[in-house]
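Run: sequence + adenosine-5'-triphosphate -> complex structure.
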Amino acid sequence: MINVPKGTKDILPKDSYKWQFIENTARQTAKLFGAQEIRTPTFEHTEVFLRGVGETTDIVNKEMYTFLDKGGRSITLKPEGTAGVARAFVENGLNNSALPAKFYYITSCFRYERPQAGRLREFHQFGVEFLGSKEADIDAETILLAKTFLEKVGIENITLYLNSIGCITCRAEYSKALTSYLNENYDKLCPLCQDRLAKNPLRILDCKNDDCKDITKNAPKIIDYICDDCSNHFEKVKKLLTVAGVEFKINPNIVRGLDYYTRTVFEFVSENIGAQGTVCGGGRYDGLISDLGGTDTPGIGFAVGIERILMLLENTGKTIENPNTVQVYFAPMGEKENEKAFELCTSLRANGVIADFDHMGRGIKAQFKYADKIGAKYVAVIGSNELDNGVVKVKNMTDGSETEVEFDKLKEFIK
Ligand code: ATP
Ligand code: MG
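>> structure
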């Protein structure tokens, strides 16, 4: 037997309807905020992520699926959605389109990580990117979109953590202060962070190692270093969120994993799924488009991990109704009855009723067993008597009640 590669999963019909629910909710919510779908390739030139995600990030350093194709080009499976969208924005000259350009996507992402609950090698993101506005209200709107989506799928008790990491100028100032503090505690840092210290000290604030967390707790806070412009922007974001009734907590250690973030950064974190509690992360990335060779264009976005959403819903006992189950299953008791079942099924389907009938030549008992297994709501028995009288005997599989229904009244009865 050949198994799926480590860190990947089959999504079987017993679960796929849950995915459809999440995806439909994502599409509906994005649409309400004026966003349109963008689909970019599953793989890009590696350069897109080197520049668009950043060379000092975990993603680029450790997690990318990178290979040479048969033409000798370096190709990478997308580890996240933003860099590809930014590349497409620049390549298609969308800075000349109506701005802000509002995009959303639902996509597979690939990261070579140690698989565990809520951490896979192929996982799925719903993400949003708003490009072209530097105003604080679009930051608030982006956060509100994420929150609306989380509410609509049924997630409760989730905390929004907010921070501002300033612009390139104020961050340089902060970086100095942070480096000097961390240098004093160099010996207590994990080896990885010791290495990060020279390359990108901010990343240490994000480290999951407990010793590092202890040290960074007392580190200088970026919020105390941001310039007036960045500070005003952040105040406005907070004010708008408050007006919209969105609760948040300021968390100075949120810096996000990616190099391109500026100013507003945020995460939605749940206490209900253990270590992989971050279901959504996002922020502003005013330097990204120009880093990718485009006209300087500000942007903001977020990405939600769909597996983590489903995990969270499951762990909190939320169920999603399966809208795909068969509404009526016909159990014909002979050749002629079978033809009638075929005819009735066809007409019901044409009227939007999910209908099916026996395709295995089974006896009536086995047909009921099958109908039960597939969760059919009604079973419609057609025997020779029924055929003669132009009726079916309909059994309600939930309460066991039986009703005789004329052929042409079936649609109303089922619906
Ligand atoms: P983490 O800190 O958990 O590694 P991250 O900062 O790497 O997350 P992002 O790059 O911000 O994650 O991706 C956005 C969202 O995608 C995360 O909040 C999470 O819900 C989801 N996600 C990230 N990596 C994985 C993965 N390997 N498997 C499943 N979901 C993931
Ligand atoms: Mg990660």
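>> summary
The longest strand covers residues 101-110. The chain has a mean pLDDT of 94.
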